[in-house]
Amino acid sequence: MVVPVRKISHRAWMFLKPFTMTMWLATVGILIYTMFVVWFLEHRTNRDFRGPWKSQLGTALWFTFSTLFFAHRERLNSNFTRVVMVVWLFVVLVLNSSYTANLASVLTVQRLEPTATDIETLKRDNAIVGCDGDSFIRKYLVDVLGFKPKNIKNVTSEYSFPGEFDSGNIGAAFLELPYEKSFLSQHCKNYTATEQTYSFGGLGFVFPKDSPLAAHVSKAILVLSEDGTIKRLENKWFPQNSQCLNSKIDIGNESLSLQSFWGLFVLTGGTSTIIFMLYLSHLFRKYRHHRDANQVYMSPTDESLWSRTVRLAQYFHKAELHHPARASTVEDWRASSWEYINESDYNTAGHPQATPLSEIEMPETSNL
């Protein structure tokens, strides 16, 4: 079946075409999961991930989303988080490269799509189809494929098909395979053949009854088919036009699916989960040490399960910020350099104190 082709226009949502819908949903899901893990690992020790809940959510979302473009600036304090981010950044690198390459291919390569892809669409739309009226194809279209006789138009010549297509008289043409290849070798830029092909018994050779030539001719054709001679003759008689190589027929879905990247998602998701469980184990051990150290001030036996759960959640949410050492100021230096000196400490035999100065009163003298 030969049908016309049309160019695929760049639609407004073409930037979503590199990935399938399932792939986009999986990417968003693993992004949110990584965001949660990063927030949980950092919010106790990192000042950037503290504050109100809206601020924490915004920081975690911005940090994880900015990693898609390698534009994140927040510092990481936990080694657990660094391990998660190493694997995540590798996955991001692969996804970015694949998306960019596929999008560039979609936007730069000229793509064509057939106007009709199957027979059922033609019959449902009551489209007019053309065929060679002198061949058996018309009867086959009616008896086998189920076309209505009024929807079949006889085309007398191979050269008349382009005019019938251009005028809209037919929507598809049914040709025998040799004629189809000959037609497409000359009009490959405007027409294409669908993948669905109907095979018959093939061409026959008529010989007299019980003629010995039938077996010899059949054997010779079989040998030519097996050694590739028929294929070489077909390529020689029906060469592919060089202009056809620059156009690509877009019949199927060429978007990248989850099947191509599920290994990467398992890698980053599994790493994040393992690190998350290790950090929880580490946090539980620290909580037990904290509880044992403060048993004097609390009575665990009198607490209910809900109280223990609340206390555990409060400990998980408690900040452990490490403040850097403050640089010494001038006042601190002066305070530490000048000390108070007690006079009694230095009035010893080893350190005799000088005699204090006293006033000497001079007697008045009379004038001579």
TrEMBL record:
Residues in Ionotropic glutamate receptor C-terminal domain copies: 27-240
Subcellular location: Membrane
GO CC terms: membrane
Gene3D superfamilies in the cross-refs: 1.10.287.70, Periplasmic binding protein-like II
Region of interest called Disordered, as start-end residue ranges on this chain: 349-368
Keyword set, alphabetical order: Glycoprotein, Ion channel, Ion transport, Ligand-gated ion channel, Membrane, Receptor, Transmembrane, Transmembrane helix, Transport
GO molecular function terms noted in the UniProt entry: ligand-gated monoatomic ion channel activity
Predominant location: membrane
Coiled coil spans: none
Parts of the chain that traverse the membrane: 21-41, 53-71, 83-101, 261-281
Family annotation (InterPro entries): Ionotropic_Glu_rcpt, Iontro_rcpt_C
Membrane topology label: Multi-pass membrane protein
Matches recorded under Pfam families: Lig_chan
Protein name: Ionotropic glutamate receptor C-terminal domain-containing protein
